[in-house]
Amino acid sequence: MIRISLSSGEPLHLKPSPNRKFTGLRIPGSNLYSSERAGQSIHLHIYQHRLYTITLRQFHFAKTTQIITTEPDKWLRLEVPLSGRFSMNYKNGPGFQLNPGTYHLTEQPVFVSDYAENVPCSYFTIHFSPELLGAIGSEQTLGTRQPGPVPKHLLEMLYEIMKCPFEESLRDFYYANKVREILFTHTVSLPVVLPGELSPEQIGQMHEADRIMANNLDGKITIPELARQLGTNFVTLKKNYERVFGISLFPRLMQRKMEHIKLLLEKTDKPLKEIADLAGYQTLPGFINAFRKRFKITPNDWRKQRRGF
User: Fold this and answer.
1) Could you tell me which residue, 23 or 287, shows the higher pLDDT?
2) Is 234:226 a contact under the CB 8 Å cutoff?
3) CA distance linking residue 5 with residue 1, whole number of Å
4) Most buried residue, 91, 138, 145, 211, by CB count within 10 Å?
5) Rounded Cα gap, residues 252 and 82, in angstroms
6) Which CATH number covers residue 111?
7) Nearest to residue 58, comparing CAs of 269, 194, 211?
8) 148 and 250 share one domain
């Protein structure tokens, strides 16, 4: 189990919590462990498998805080910040700042991290077991990696994990494939070129916008509301988002929403009305018309087609 303590050495005890009651970003099927007291909250979503471990870690401190984290193993670990900003310091090597839009790989089991006052932070990790890495069959060595820009396809796969539509019987299989796909994407990705006219903070802000959109495919957030949450304005948000991701905000939101709908249609038996509700459509006819307009086929016919009926 992951151990977390304050820089003073005082342990922060993580207790099991009911995941079903948790609101916000999470990993379906994970176990939730929380530590809450005045001025701080920590939530760890942990999905444990023999070959890999997936975690989503969320921190919020009312004042600047330094914590020490001890991992349960020395497996290779991929870390991707999703929101906020924090620094990390390892025993062997220099410290560095992590912003959304970056990632790195490490084997260091103990590290110190600094969190800013009243800045909620979250980051995603995958632990790869030696057995999993040994079975990949790649001649390229998979080892540690210094912080750098995260490939867009790799980021999308993290969001897909957090939107997993499958129940327990298929969830392990789905996650195992995604974990291997993420490793492959990391291995073959070309260096990402960041827009030079934006600062690391502005790039991180656009990745936060992308995360918020990925978590609100039900239409409960508007683009002006998104800009307000990020502390910017509508025009700047639209312009900078396109610079970072190469696509405008609204088309990207619709693209994400429709891809999720297609996954639900193909891989689950959820009724059309339930899928329409999950996608934020107020009426079933409105959902059917929007789907048909985009794909030239009704949702029901697309489902039958994909299932070979």
Assistant:
1) 287
2) no
3) 13
4) 211
5) 18
6) 2.60.120.280
7) 211
8) no
Asked if 31 and 48 touch (Cβ cutoff 8 Å), the reply is yes
- What band does 95 get if pLDDT is binned at 50, 70 and 90? confident
Of 188, 212, 236, which residue sits at a domain end? Answer: 188
pLDDT(139) > 60: no
**Residue 29 or residue 23, greater confidence:** 29
Note whether 179 and 54 are within 8 A (CB).
yes
Q: What six digits make up the tokens of 63?
A: 């004042």
> How far apart, in whole angstroms, are the C-alpha atoms of residue 27 and residue 93?
31
Would you say 19 and 30 are in contact if contact means Cβ atoms under 8 Å apart? yes
- Which stretch of DSSP H or E encloses residue 238? helix 234-245
Same domain, 8 and 92: yes
pLDDT confidence band for 58 (50 / 70 / 90)? very high
**Contact assessment for residue 86 and residue 114, using Cβ atoms and an 8 Å cutoff:** yes
Residue 195 belongs to a domain: no
Counting every residue written for the chain, the total comes to 309
- Residue 193, domain member (yes or no): no
Domain of 171 in residue numbering reads as 3-188
**Which structure tokens are listed for 108?**
């260091």
The residue-averaged pLDDT of 154-183 equals: 90
d(CA 193, CA 91): 30
Mark whether 224 and 94 lie in a shared domain.
Answer: no
Least confident stretch, 84-88, 101-105, 135-139: 135-139
Residue range 127-135: average pLDDT?
Answer: 90
Tokens matching residue 28:
């379906």
Kindly state the DSSP code that residue 76 receives in the 8-state scheme.
E
